[in-house]
TrEMBL record:
UniProt pathway annotation: One-carbon metabolism; formaldehyde assimilation via RuMP pathway; D-fructose 6-phosphate from D-ribulose 5-phosphate and formaldehyde: step 1/2
Similarity annotation: Belongs to the HPS/KGPDC family. HPS subfamily.
EC category name: lyase
Protein name: 3-hexulose-6-phosphate synthase
Gene that this polypeptide is encoded by: rmpA
Record Pfam families: OMPdecase
Keyword Transferase among UniProt keywords: no
GO molecular function terms attached to this record: 3-dehydro-L-gulonate-6-phosphate decarboxylase activity; hexulose-6-phosphate synthase activity; orotidine-5'-phosphate decarboxylase activity
Domain of life: Bacteria
Length: 213
């Protein structure tokens, strides 16, 4: 298996703080995720700024698109996004729109399985439609209620679909190696890095743990 990628979730609303945090953790992560609240607040200009500052990093824009897939995603790919997310609950037509926009830009579409009731069916159908990545995702509100992404990760990994698997939802130092072993190709980390006393140090620890598996 290719080396798992580490994705840093940039979840601040503040433009300058987001860029500053990206600078701190850059040596240790592969993908910068512009989180949903952050992209809603700052828009496409933040994509352009991060693209210009970090030409060698992958950029994921967490649009969580729910409708008008191609129309919504196109300007973000055009601004330099490598990956945009679309909600599996939006339905196949919207997912296909984002996949089409991704393909038109030589980029990738990620299907977020958050709150999808039949995750295996959604993952199968969207993989068949050409999605490159499916995201197992326990959102922040569900985490607060005690949920974790681990069971869903095992279920989806077992399907052996021709997609990369991303996992998000409270991943931290004590769980990151288990998710790598369970088959995650992209490990998303937010609070465990940005909430640490030293985000750079926390990102470095995560990198070491992932690379040691
Ligand atoms: O997409 C998100 C919320 O919808 C977060 O960015 C994602 O869950 C990662 O953050 P954390 O590691 O704090 O859960």
């Amino acid at each position: 298996m290719a080396r798992p990628l580490i994705q840093m979730a940039l979840d601040s609303l503040d433009f300058d703080q987001t860029v500053a945090l990206a600078e701190q953790v850059a040596p240790h992560v592969d993908i910068f995720e512009i989180g949903t609240p952050c992209i809603k607040h700052n828009g496409v200009n933040l994509v352009k700024a991060l693209r210009a500052k970090f030409p060698d990093k992958l950029l994921l824009v967490d649009l969580k698109t729910m409708d008008a897939g191609e129309y919504e995603a196109t300007p973000f790919y055009a601004a330099g996004a490598d990956i945009c997310t679309v909600l599996g609950v939006s339905g196949l037509a919207t997912c296909k729109g984002v996949i089409k926009a991704a393909n038109a830009h030589g980029a990738e579409a990620q299907i977020d399985l958050i709150n999808v009731s039949d995750k295996a069916a959604c993952a199968r159908a969207t993989a068949e439609a050409g999605a490159q990545i499916v995201g197992i995702h326990t959102g922040l509100d569900a985490q607060a209620a005690g949920d974790t992404p681990f069971g869903d990760l095992n279920d989806i990994a077992r399907l052996g679909l021709p997609v990369r698997i991303s996992v998000a939802g409270g991943i931290k130092q004590s769980t990151v190696q288990d998710v790598v072993r369970a088959g995650a190709n992209i490990i998303v980390v937010g609070a465990a890095i940005y909430g640490a006393p030293s985000p750079a140090e926390a990102a470095r620890e995560i990198r070491e743990l992932v690379d040691a598996v």
